[in-house]
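Hello again,

I reread your note about wanting to compare the complex against the isolated chains. To keep things tidy I'm splitting this into two emails, and this first one only covers the full assembly. Below are the input lines as submitted, including protein chains and any nucleic acid or small-molecule components. They are followed by the predicted structure of everything together. The single-chain runs will come separately.
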Amino acid sequence: MKNSKSHTNDCLSASREITVRFSEVDSMNIVWHGSYPLYFEDAREAFGHKYGIDYLTIFGNGYYAPLVDLSFQYKRPIVYGMTIRVDIFYRPTDAAKIVFDYEIYNVADGQLMATGSSTQVFLDKQYQLVWTNPDFYQEWKVKQGIN
Amino acid sequence: MKNSKSHTNDCLSASREITVRFSEVDSMNIVWHGSYPLYFEDAREAFGHKYGIDYLTIFGNGYYAPLVDLSFQYKRPIVYGMTIRVDIFYRPTDAAKIVFDYEIYNVADGQLMATGSSTQVFLDKQYQLVWTNPDFYQEWKVKQGIN
Amino acid sequence: MKNSKSHTNDCLSASREITVRFSEVDSMNIVWHGSYPLYFEDAREAFGHKYGIDYLTIFGNGYYAPLVDLSFQYKRPIVYGMTIRVDIFYRPTDAAKIVFDYEIYNVADGQLMATGSSTQVFLDKQYQLVWTNPDFYQEWKVKQGIN
Amino acid sequence: MKNSKSHTNDCLSASREITVRFSEVDSMNIVWHGSYPLYFEDAREAFGHKYGIDYLTIFGNGYYAPLVDLSFQYKRPIVYGMTIRVDIFYRPTDAAKIVFDYEIYNVADGQLMATGSSTQVFLDKQYQLVWTNPDFYQEWKVKQGIN
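Full-complex prediction:
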């Protein structure tokens, strides 16, 4: 699992605050685990907008970037009405992939509620897997100082 | 990741067939990854009903069994209208946990579409983590020939 | 609201049985209202497969049929583990629309749990509203004895 | 259907801006209709927080307020990446109900994208319908100048 100590100052990251919806909790009043992928998606969108690598940019360049691997680990119960902050960290890799780590915190007391990670690959418009970084993504990485 | 070869004949398992809903595919006509937790949940319910270890039984015995860890790995695109079969395998462990592995197949051609695993722990009615197997679960394991 | 007495014997209809998922109930252990559109969708798919008017057929003929109007009325609480039957009834209309009525029953005791209705229109591939019935749909209506 | 002209200046109302998630659009890149109940729920939460009538307040007073009737009408397609504003309007009624009207606008150009309405009733902790306004709700109405 991701070690948060590795998030050095020069790590690309973003944050999104979310207030838990009534529809997201289960009969124990705890967020249903199927909501984590949604929270992570919200964080990816915040990251994409901040760094110019959102879904529309990816589509506009002729690619689709589906998630092929996702994991999350529950630490403490997230309950109805709680405001959480989802931190997303870009994890550099040489492969033609986009890898993110996630940390969810309770805004009120700063406690870590959950962690996770996701991996995306690139498909072209014929749904074929792309084995090397698309040009637009390689240029984006260079621009961000990642190589 | 789960090696399917380890699913020996005496492994407790169940299956659920699911026809992909229109609402579960994204703008590429591929199942949105956030649907995998739902498919896995359907398989757990099939397992629970088959072996007498469903949520209502767990609740009735005074416990709640939230997922604390989930992962899935995409292999091939699941699309609208496809009928898939979700196989669920019980993975024995000494810890006070319920661990499952999952495999999703395309019914039409038998291809493996995705894999995954999940871990559940036990909380009592005061939301406290239980460190040893609850009696009802230990009895269930013995009855199933698991030790 | 739909009067169930109007469902005469020659009404086109279909049914789908659904067992309520744990993820579909809220903190009162009652199905969250946002699940009704999903149950209605399941019934539409059952209808579409039975009568040859499913989404893929509509797409294949060059159209998209989004819902433009939906309503539902709660009668009794649907709870976790309950098996429900969603009955769907085709309501003939001269307009270029597909209108359905829905009734949800508790399978165990036959009680009516909820009702609803939906209206779909036709868009062409340029997302333009179609004001007269597409040929394929008009032919389908004739074939079903609807005029 | 709700006539927006009736929303006079002294109408209790609230607004919530929402950016459409990738997971909320279907294979036509249009928001799936099952997302409208979620958008309306977001607006109700905004209203509840603004006027002190949120779910936790209702629960704290010993009641549950499930939706028993919901309808929505599509006007124009809401697409991925669009920022929408959901306006919610409290519709006074003498019955022991909470009735809201909704209007969804495209923030960029102010166009009306969808409308809707919802009705909630009160259940006590034994899940029994309450036929007269609970005291806390009657007091809230008086405080808001509604009666």
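For quick reference: Chain D touches chain A through 13 residues (CB under 8 Å).

B.
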